[in-house]
Structure formats: structure tokens, C-alpha cells
Automatic annotation (TrEMBL):
This is Ig-like domain-containing protein. Residues 109-199 form the Ig-like domain. Keywords: Adaptive immunity, Disulfide bond, Glycoprotein, Immunity, Immunoglobulin domain, Membrane, MHC II, Signal, Transmembrane, Transmembrane helix. GO terms for cellular component: MHC class II protein complex. It comes from Lates calcarifer (Barramundi). PROSITE patterns: IG_LIKE (PS50835), IG_MHC (PS00290).
Amino acid sequence: MMMMMMKVSELVLVLSCVLCVSADVFHEDLAIGGCSDTDGEEMYSLDGEEKWYADFINKRGVEPLPSFIDHISYQEGTYEQAEADQQICRQNLKVDQQMYKNTPLQFDPPSSPMIYTRDKVELGVKNTLICHVSGFYPAPVNVSWTKNEQKVTEGTSINVPFPLKDGSFTQISRLDFIPQLGDVYTCTVRHPALNQPLTRIWGETQHLSVSRCAVFCGVGLTVGLLGVAAGTFFLIKGNECS
């Protein structure tokens, strides 16, 4: 399947295939190669998990799967081949720009992003905030983070756009952080199809809900203990009178 995606003077080509490994089991093996006037992408995945992608900024290949998961290591020269593919892609891009210069542009905005933590929240313990953005076209989206209304860049990362079966894309941005009481974080998503950015908040409301629960539970426990003590007192007094 080949889809052509245009954004002003940009065009991205996406190639996908399904690999059948037995009569009973199917696996989706996906390869993406794309370019624009200023950027490029090459990525390989299996069953929705990224196996390898080219980091054209730091000029290296990246295997994003955790070290404890068995995964295929790509042979030496894979990144260099990706750079060569980019040259071919840009040559094709110039031709396609001429052919489709009057084609109406299509834009689909992302659905409401989701923000959540990777692990259960413990104050003072390192964790990761995840901002999940999906359903947009064309790729990519721009995701930015703030902490207490101050922009944050350290500890942030974002994966390459991942195509969905309906032709739209999904991306996940991450922020490494240490939860502290009162801290408020935001994830803001920008895309050409949006009239204004989408922002989701994590922090104060979660801490308040924990604090309020602790207060109410503490009050309930105190009242309960007072009730038990009062009942015991009157029971003893009643026995003495009899």
C-alpha cells in the first residue's frame, strides 16, 4: 500500500506490507520511508512495535525496544542506506510537487490527547509522563511540555509518526520527571488542522484528590474510633449500675 501525503510543499511516501509466517499466524511488518523539503523519516516495525528508526539529526540508527526484550539488530550500513534513500526520496519529491501542485490539501486534526504516567505515582520517585496523540494527518504533530507554566525540554522525547490503518497517524511524547506535591505539568499539541493548540494538564488535581481522600479517610477513622470509645464507656457504666 502506498499513500501520498502532501502538506504545502511537502510530500511523504509510506510503504507497508503484511508478512505471513505460518498458516495460522499473521504478523504485520511495516516499513516507512518519507521525506519533505527539510526533514525525513525511515522506520521499521513489527506488530505495532518500532524495531528501528533513523535519527537523521544525530546521524545514527536507533533500536528503541528495551534491552530486556529480544529484538533484531540491524546490520552495519543500515543507517547509511537510509540516508541514500532520502536522496532518492527528495528527487521524487520534486517531481511529485510539480504533478500535484494544484491538488487540494487534506488536514485531519488529532483527537483529544491523553496524558498519563508510565508507573504508579509515588511522590519523590522518578517516573515518566506520557502524552498520546492520535488520529491526525498529515504527520507530524508538535508536542511541548511545561512544568508550573515554565517550558521544559530536558528529559523530553517523541517517537516517529506511526501510521494507523485508516491512514492517520499517532505519536507519543514522553517527559521524565519526579512527582512533587503541587507541581503542575502540561502537554500541548500543535497541528496545521487545529485552530488552536490542544493542552492537557497533569498534577494539581491528582495531588488534591489524593490529599482530600487522605483527609476524609482520616476524619472518618477518627470519628469511628470515637464512636467505639463512647460505646465501650456506656457499656461499662451500664454493667456497673446493674
